[in-house]
Design brief:
rod-shaped, single chain, 4 helices, mainly alpha
Length: 183
């Protein structure tokens, strides 16, 4: 309130013996309480979403597409999409955990009236931005894993490849979910 009113008027009282700050607090107490409840509910819900995204990103880091060799190194380490997958996964995990911490700082804030002017909107904007970018990185990871499946199924030996890339390399017993009937 001090920045909105001239410094001479801050300590003046009206006919009900209230300062400008007291009057503002009294008139907008209902709006303040509604805003507090909305911000807490939004932060709780977004925290749940961010934790779920962090869980998926953490799991994807340990179960890489294509699996691991006996030495522990990923099979598709030399593929260009593996680098994109790994970077997207790390960025997604980092942003999701950052948004979780940001939402928790919102939930633990005192929700004073002056915090609603700058501090809480900035925290909410930062947390939502991290959450949206985390989801975007997760969306980038999925096509990369599809690309891995494409290479793993059609070109099992990437150096030599297949003479006929349209030929499906697996026999019927190895295909999952495919119902093939003879005509």
């Amino acid at each position: 309130m001090e920045k909105a009113v001239k410094s001479d008027f801050v300590q003046l009282f009206n006919h009900k013996n209230q300062t400008a700050d007291d009057l503002f607090t009294k008139n907008y107490s209902k709006l303040h309480e509604e805003s507090r409840k909305w911000l807490e509910e939004t932060s709780r819900n977004c925290t749940i979403v961010a934790v779920l995204i962090a869980t998926v990103a953490f799991t994807a880091a340990y179960t890489v597409p294509g699996g691991n060799q006996s030495s522990g190194m990923p099979v598709l380490l030399s593929q260009p999409f593996f680098v994109v997958f790994t970077l997207a996964d790390v960025i997604s995990l980092t942003l999701a955990l950052t948004s979780v911490v940001s939402f928790l700082t919102i939930l633990k804030s005192p929700f004073r009236l002056k915090d609603f002017r700058k501090t809480l909107p900035r925290k909410l904007t930062f947390a939502l931005t991290c959450l949206i970018l985390s989801v975007s990185m997760m969306m980038l990871m999925k096509p990369c894993s599809f690309r891995f499946d494409h290479f793993a199924n059609i070109y099992p030996d990437r150096k030599g490849g297949r003479k006929n890339p349209n030929q499906y390399p697996l026999d019927r017993s190895q295909r999952s979910g495919c119902q093939i009937t003879e005509v």
